[in-house]
Amino acid sequence: MQSSIAEKVARLADALQQRGWTVTAAESCTGGAVAMNLTELAGSSAWFNGSFVTYSNELKEKMLGVAPETLLTYGAVSEQVVDEMCEGARVKAGADLAIAISGIAGPGGGSTEKPVGTVCFGVAVEGEPAVTETRLFKGDRHQVREQAVDYALAMLLDKLN
Question: Do residues 79 and 134 lie in contact, with contact meaning Cβ atoms separated by under 8 Å?
Fold first, then answer.
């Protein structure tokens, strides 16, 4: 049985507190929904120190240090960009662990190469190469975003296990 988002947040909180770690998020298509779900848990300030909602490419560059060349070459929805987003967020926030999300939630914006529902994820831990992954979610804008948040939390838990 798949655990709910709230259950994943509780498990993530426990794992982070056991290690004495903090987490941050760099979000684009989810618009801060990961941060919102993390802060639903009372006491989250002990392990969640903030996040970045960088919807525009300009803010991905300015706030997270994503290289303009990376955006130009691969596009905002790419594993290369989320790699740079999660590492930039981790460093800027002074966090031990970071998640980055960039995708096409729809209903428009998709292409043959990157259809609506395409979401790229990156997870960074200091001293290790980022882990990146691309998923294709089905459904409307709300459903794609909800699935992306759920998947991001699962990636963070996997990284801690």
Answer: yes
Buried/exposed code over 34-71 (b: 16+ C-beta within 10 A; e: otherwise): bbebbeeeeebeebbebbbbbeebeebbebbebeeebb
Give how far the C-alpha of residue 77 lies from the chain's centroid of Cα atoms, to the nearest Å: 12
pLDDT in tens, 64-91: 999 999 999 999 999 999 999 999 999 9
DSSP annotation of 143: H
Question: Six-digit token pair at 102?
Answer: 């960039």
Q: Which residue type does 145 have?
A: R
Instruction: Write down all domains in the chain, each with its CATH number in brackets.
Output: 5-160 (3.90.950.20)
